Amino acid sequence: MNAPAYTELDRMGNSRSERWGARVTNFLIHTQEGNGTAESLAAYLNNPANGVSYHYTLRGGVVCDVVDTDYASWSVLDANSHTINLCFAGSRASWSRNQWLAIEADLRIAAWLAVQDARKYGFASDVIAPPYSRRDGISDHRYVTECLGIGTHTDVGWNFPWAVFESHVREFAGGAPVAGEIDIKAASSPWLGKRLGSGEEMRTADGVGRFVQFEHGYIYWHPSTGAHPIPASLFEKYAETGWEAGPLGYPITDHTVLRDPANLEWGEVQGFQNGALYRRTGKPAYRVHGEIRERWNRTGFENGALGWPISDEIAYDTASYQEFDNGRIYWTPKPTLALRTTSGRDEPLRDSA
């Protein structure tokens, strides 16, 4: 596995202590709570009078080596002797998830450094994300506070994208769990047929997920959703919406074959992060989502008064609506309205909510 591209600068100083024979057990990440660069933060840490240091500072693809990892940095009080510490310069624990994802390249570099140090010192490269458990691995300052009972810091904060960070750690640690989940799902889904092309996992556009193409569909995997196959009968619509980068996101369930009141195969459905795809046998697939989906669900889904969707959501003015076999559902900023069409007339349906 190739290392991510970054610039490494030697900024070693004397803000350090002996480890006194302690075994290194954890790699911890931190926020600066300021707006420094990797170099300016390193310069501050190199003044022993400031009483703080980290082994690494990182920002914008620049890594500064501040403390030799054979020594303890001054980062986590009584946990210094058995930890390696990296600080994201210019970061804050109050950051939103989107702010963290904006520096995903740095998250990937941090994951690389963590895995290399785990191998060097012989501790696990498992990511210990909230809710924490006390063990060897890769975590953050909040782990020290909540799990080890040392100090009061809560960085890197509640919005840190742990699943994204863990996917990079897995990649550099060997990637076996990713391949394993796809392989396990493929083995339990023989209807997919044989793998096409090279048969290897392909990286999705976000750089986090993976997918594999088969004769009769695809398997998509993401660390927060797991691996789920998408049959070819639904995949055309999924592709039309922009795959995982579109409004549906990643699949969160396998597809389900639906049956009519006589128990005959009627169609299929699959759930995604932001909606579902429904397809009646012999008809196109349609996306159902949001409050219109919730209202339709309350009518009884495809077995209810409205029947199957026969269109995607259609925008008009500042609102939208969706057509069904026997009527439509309107969405406005105010509550939804469901209308059943009978004998050419629209009949409002009473909402059970």
From TrEMBL:
SMART domains: Ami_2. Residues 12-157 form the N-acetylmuramoyl-L-alanine amidase domain. Pfam families: LGFP. InterPro entries: Amidase/PGRP_sf (IPR036505), Amidase_domain (IPR002502), LGFP (IPR013207). Signal peptide: none annotated. SUPFAM superfamilies: N-acetylmuramoyl-L-alanine amidase-like (SSF55846). This is N-acetylmuramoyl-L-alanine amidase domain-containing protein. The lineage of its organism: Bacteria, Bacillati, Actinomycetota, Actinomycetes, Mycobacteriales.
